[in-house]
Write a structure and sequence with these properties.
This protein is α/β, with parallel strands linked by helices. Helix content is 41%, strand content 20%. The strands form 6 sheets. Strands 14-15-16-13-12-18-19 form a 7-stranded mixed β-sheet, with helices on both faces. The N and C termini lie far apart (96 Å). Bound molecules: 1,4-dihydronicotinamide adenine dinucleotide (NAI) and magnesium ion. Magnesium ion binds at residues 48-49, 116, 201-202.
């Protein structure tokens, strides 16, 4: 006899397979170089996996140095022949069209992200909506690249912001199309051409999007080469004709990108990991604080660089807060990310599941208390896919590995605090500095936290909010540079000073 959960598993698998069949082109998916779909020299392909079912979705060509070189050549040619001649108005128009094309098929793109990444459909829709808005934001920004004049008695000193030419971009798998947009939109607005490598776990949405915009994009302006980090990413970020590199991913790979950039003195933008604190003040309403904390931690299944992974709860409300928090965590629905009611889908890959379980194991081996979750679920689709239970861990030392290193899965570390200065010192005592949050109605407390925490983004009574226009990036080992905002244009341009003699010809 087939059990209920077996029937459910079969139903979910059939639903995913059907959707993949109707939405995805048949593979293997090719690289997009110079306006054409190419296989390159190598015939090697890899499979992009649906982490909910463990089934493969489509094959994708594995890029090598050769395809990267072709893409960089195409990008330079496009830059020199066409793109560097475009006006800001033309680039604005193109970016607006790119936004419209994405918006017109928003639901399809959201569904593709669900299939390829495993994120819940409700969150995937937010990704696409934000991506559309980022294209529109940078369409406007394209008209705002300005230089200045510098007062001088005998000289006329003028500055221009000029593009680098070709930009190399490498993006991760947690927000596949959104993070590609964060990089593409400002690079194009500033007048660069691009070679971009999506993550090997989630290449489908970007490749599908390139099909959607191929007829509006001049050849060679955006080139996409798919493949793995060492084989495809490394030749791109170390390419001698790529004077600007933008990378989002692990701190370890980010360090390699930085070293590679040293060889050619390339400019870099790095958006790396985090271990962000969320501070619950003594005046916070426990139920409201619990909702914010759940969202801070479990949004995108914890696969979020800014996730609020360290909860600092004031001792005076700890009991009430912990009850409310565990209650809210208990209500999170884990399951098929295509369901509207699902809060937590699978992690992106088996490797990420193993990494998360490894950290939970470290906590288990110490004196930590696992208050919720703590592993995988051996039942139905939850056993077949890459699912990890929402996990809450208490009684760990502030210096322990689980409390200081990025886990990147649904694992919250609970810490209590009493004295302000000591709490701030503990909150700052990690290598990362991407984000932080505070829940309080006390305005001066919020301001003090905002000043005292060393992080690029501080959220007050909210978390993980990243609208276009809000600069995003890290302090310390969380990165270099800011994305998503006007100042991002500075990351994609360089200053040229033009100095003219106004005097007697000297
Ligand atoms: P990763 O840093 O290896 O991958 C990110 C991107 O970099 C992918 O496109 C990958 O192909 C590329 N890449 C890998 N090695 C490269 C190299 N040598 N040169 C150029 N590009 C390279 O991250 P991975 O292995 O997927 O995830 C491991 C951990 O990294 C996660 O558990 C998480 O802690 C962290 N991570 C952080 C992200 C963030 O948003 N800051 C995003 C993804 C991962
Ligand atoms: Mg995938």
């Amino acid at each position: 006899m087939t059990s209920h959960s077996e029937i459910d598993t079969l139903r979910i698998k059939a639903r995913h397979a059907e959707l993949a069949e109707s939405l995805l082109p048949s593979g293997p998916l090719k690289h997009f170089v110079d306006g054409e779909w190419i296989t390159g020299r190598g015939d090697d392909t890899f499979q992009s996996i649906d982490p909910t079912t463990g089934e493969s979705l489509v094959g994708v060509y594995e890029g090598t140095k050769e395809e990267v070189n072709r893409a960089v050549d195409a990008a330079w040619e496009a830059y020199e022949q066409r793109w560097s001649e475009t006006t800001p108005a033309e680039r604005q128009q193109l970016l607006l069209t790119m936004a419209d094309r994405l918006e017109a098929r928003a639901e399809d793109f959201a569904l593709i992200e669900v299939l390829d990444n495993g994120k819940p459909i409700t969150e995937a829709r937010e990704d696409i909506e934000l991506a559309v808005d980022h294209f529109r934001y940078f369409a406007g920004a394209a008209r705002n690249i300005e230089g200045k004049t510098v007062p001088h008695k005998e000289l006329h000193i003028q500055t221009r912001r000029e593009p680098y030419g070709v930009v190399g971009q490498v993006v991760p798998w947690n927000f596949p199309l959104l993070l590609a947009t964060w990089k593409l939109a400002p690079a194009l607005a500033a007048g660069n051409t691009v070679v971009l490598k999506p993550a090997e776990q989630t290449p489908i949405s970007l490749l599908t999007y390139m099909r959607e915009i191929a007829d509006v994009l001049p050849d060679g302006v955006v080139n996409v080469v798919t493949g793995f980090g060492p084989e495809t990413g490394a030749p791109l970020v170390s390419h001698e004709r790529v004077p600007k590199v933008a990378f989002t991913g692990s701190t370890e790979v980010g360090q390699g990108v930085m070293k590679a950039a040293a060889n050619t003195i390339s400019d870099i933008t790095l958006e790396l990991g985090g271990k962000s604190p969320l501070i619950v003040a003594p005046d916070a309403d426990p139920a409201e604080a619990a909702d914010i904390a759940v969202d801070a931690m479990f949004f995108n299944g914890g696969e979020c660089c800014s996730a609020g992974t360290r909860l600092f709860i004031h001792e005076s409300i700890a009991d009430e807060f912990v009850d409310a928090f565990l209650d809210a965590v208990g209500k999170l629905q884990m399951g098929d990310p295509l369901e509207e009611s699902t809060d937590i889908g699978p992690q992106v890959s088996r490797a990420e599941v193993e990494k998360t379980l490894h950290y939970i194991g470290l906590a288990r081996d110490s004196d930590a208390s696992i208050l919720r979750g703590g592993g995988t679920v051996e039942e139905g689709i939850l056993a077949e896919g890459c699912f990890v239970e929402p996990t809450v861990i208490a009684d760990v030392g502030a210096d322990s590995t689980v409390a200081t290193q990025e886990i990147f899965g649904p694992v919250e570390i609970m810490l209590e605090w009493d004295g302000y200065d000591e709490m701030v010192a503990r909150a700052n005592n990690v290598d990362y500095g991407l984000a932080a949050g505070v829940v309080t109605d006390d305005l001066s407390f919020a301001h003090r936290i905002a000043e005292d925490i060393m992080a690029g983004n501080i959220w007050v009574n909210t978390f993980n909010r990243l609208p276009a226009g809000q600069p995003f990036g890290g302090y310390k080992q969380s990165g270099i540079g800011r994305e998503g905002a006007m100042e991002t244009l500075r990351e994609y341009t360089q200053t040229k000073s033009i100095t003219m003699n106004l005097g007697d010809g000297q």
